[in-house]
Amino acid sequence: MTDPSDKKRVLSGMRSTGKLHLGNYVGALENWVRMQEQYDCFFFIADWHALTTDYADTSKIKENSVEVLLDWLAAGLDPEKCVMFIQSHVPAHAELHLLFSMITPLGWLERVPTYKEQRENIKEKDLGTYGFLGYPVLQSADILIYKADFVPVGEDQVAHVELTREIARRFNGFYAGKRKCVFPEPKALLTPAAKLPGTDGRKMSKSYGNTILLTDPEPVVRQKLKTMVTDPARIKRTDPGNPDVCPVGDLHKIFSDKATMAKVNEGCRSAGIGCIECKGWAADALVKILNPMQERRKKYEDNPRLAWDILEAGSARAARVAGATMDEVRDSMGMSLNYEASRSAAK
Ligand code: TRP
Ligand code: SF4
Predict the structure, then answer these.
(1) Does the reported pTM lie above 0.85?
(2) Is it true that domain 4-195+304-346 has CATH number 3.40.50.300?
(3) Atom of ligand 2 nearest to the CA of 231
(4) Top-level CATH class of 216-299?
């Protein structure tokens, strides 16, 4: 690994929701795998954030964290090139979260769009909790404790990074003193969102039950493709269609090579090919991407201890960086653990 000190730092996280799907891959993971070549990357599994909505039943959280990790490794995140860890294994995040909670005005949190949306959309759980309101404060701690330069996220998370910048500014304003800046303001790197439809044509999402998992074996992928919706105007085999309004066409655009894309365009519009044939080609393209992932994943599935060791080592590295930031934070607030330092800060 090259010296990380001259690289910009990237941090991002995913909640531990279990097995990942192709939408997670093209929406985030694929980008992370690229970024690890170029940046000093920290990627973590946000198990505490998963708790904000699933606090009543914690039985799946640990298992889900491991599933996420396995999918990361399968997709090509490499422990030699990036740091992978679990949020709850670096308790300093919680300490910083607490300190931030003291300086974050309630109005800032009530205005966060994801807060309002989720309160309205998720009715089956009581999200009127302290922790749920504080979700973005914890996220700010996740980001700032590593002094990240860049945070690759999807559109829906941009407001959280914006709040993070405001909390950094407020903290610096209160406590940085002659340091001028304890927390640099991170920038959101918007992941270019390829529109990835699920099998029902809506956005691929676990909550819609329309996903293709990174772990789906070839026959399952082919079966899911068979049931996928197509251009609704193409009812009979002899009706011409339009790949631009067909979810299978969208898959081709993302995963198929130029030659296949040309065959799809021509054949669909002239009714020269049938949807079954076209879906077969889309399945071929998916299988080609998924196969090497599933191959890489096997090594860790056969020996989960290996994966767990990666997390432990990653968490230890993350904890060192986080610990150094916390020393600085306590110092700047005049609350150093060290007696002499506290005395001089008070002056
Ligand atoms: N809130 C993010 C999501 O739901 C996950 C997350 C938690 C995160 N902490 C983070 C992402 C810090 C980026 C940086 O996707
Ligand atoms: Fe969609 Fe392919 Fe059928 Fe055209 S031929 S409607 S792109 S599945």
Answers:
(1) yes
(2) no
(3) 6
(4) mainly alpha
Is any atom of ligand 1 closer than 6 Å to the C-beta of 46? Answer: yes
Per-residue model confidence as pLDDT tens digits over 93-138: 999 999 999 999 999 999 998 888 888 888 888 888 999 999 999 9
- Residue matched to tokens 């002899």: 238
- Report the 3 state secondary structure along 219-243: HHHHHHHHCCCCCCCCCCCCCCCCH
**Does ligand 2 lie within 6 Å of residue 243's CB atom?**
yes
- The ligand whose atoms approach the alpha carbon of 32 most closely is 1
* Domain extent listing, the chain: 4-195+304-346, 216-299
Place of tokens 């997670």: 24
Place of tokens 């800032």: 108
Instruction: Give the ranges where the chain is alpha helix by DSSP (H).
Output: 22-24, 30-35, 47-53, 61-75, 92-103, 106-110, 113-121, 130-133, 135-144, 158-171, 218-226, 247-255, 258-269, 275-302, 304-332, 339-346
